[in-house]
Amino acid sequence: MAKKSGRIDCEEGLDISVYVLNILVTLALLISYLAVFIPPDKLWVPSFFSLAFPVIVLINILFIVFWVIVKPRFLFFSLAAIILGWGFIKRYVSSMVIPPKKAVL
Questions:
Q1: 105 exposure class (CB count in 10 Å sphere: 0-12, 13-18, 19+)
Q2: 63 with 87: CB under 8 angstroms?
Q3: Arithmetic mean of pLDDT over the chain
Q4: Integer Cα distance of 49 and 44 in angstroms
């Protein structure tokens, strides 16, 4: 019977570090959701997260795809954050796709 040394192997350590990065990016997404409700003159940090909103959403979607392939049980954290802010995402995408209507004189 082999004795375990208590060390983390390379693959497990990589999974843990990617999962920690996933949690940080998901927290950044949640902060960008909150930026709508926090006035910049009171707390300015969330405003910077809201500027990076499309990039943070894209990274979270890529994490979901990654976890579906590698370890599906880890995808729920990012998926929950995407579902929680679906209204924000839908509003952002629709403002990019649908051009504003011109006034008829």
A1: exposed
A2: no
A3: 84
A4: 10
